[in-house]
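Example noted here:
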Amino acid sequence: MTRPAHTPYDGSATPFTIGLKPFDPGNWIELDSDLEPYLAEKNRLFQSVPERVFMARPDTVEAQREVLDALADYLPKHFPGIYKLDENAMVIGEAGRRVVLDPDDPAPLRTASLMVPEDLVLMRKCDDGWRLVAASLCFPSSWSLAEKFDRPLQAIHEPVPAFGPGTRMAGMIARIFDNLKIGVPVERMNWSVQENADLHHPRTKTERDGRAAASGGDFLAGQDARDAFLRVERQTLSKMPVSGDILFTIRIHLDPASVLETHPDGPALARSLSAQLAALDPTQVDYKGLGTSRDRLAAYLRQLAERVPEALDG
């Protein structure tokens, strides 16, 4: 039976807050049984839409290489049963997937991303603040790399309610980035709702606005609430010791809302998620694209909260 790896909607993480906390560097990368499917999907995307999932400024190659070297060192040490170095390649899993480690690789961050389920984003301090200067982003959560590439952090967050330029939250995030210490990474959890099980979930602002207009601002229009998917992001920030850039990792976990029907903590999780949905203000509901689906999904969750979980396996 599938059970969510993380449930920030249990009240441990509140939408539209920062919620960063330190974590053990030994838990930098998260592996699960989804490793091979995630890597296969990344390969597919790099073959079909490479220009959409990787962008980098030319002056970031050495910083990218620092990330690749760090992962090539970390992975065999922490997951020796899964990752093995074999001369100039990393061999991954029972299938023996090989990722070549070329010292002359022109895009080391892209290569690094093909070894882990996480997406990898490099942020660099520039005259106008921290900028997104390189990214391997295969699994975006309703945003487009093309829209955010080489833009400052405050501009990246402009569409997010209360996080845009000049806001208190924008100032706090800038200070967190400025004060992040080498060897003291931080993490946060975030959650959203989507209509399907797609990992690759990009939408430009134009596409989001067009879809909202066509569906009355409700991407779940006409869909049974139990068929919605809960998308959880585990985000980490690590300051790289040589470049001074900040590596932002994004690990996606995706589960159908119906998983809560048989989860041992399902009623409590459903109750908390329903309350968090109900607490969203209109601008937040609009940003998440929920429209009237917010009320339908919250009602479904309230029904689950009142149920006794069915017999569970394991």
Notes: The mean pLDDT is 91. The beta strands are 21-22, 54-56, 83-86, 89-92, 97-100, 119-126, 129-136, 186-194, 229-239, 246-256. DSSP finds eleven helices and ten strands in the chain. The first strand starts at residue 21 and ends at 22.
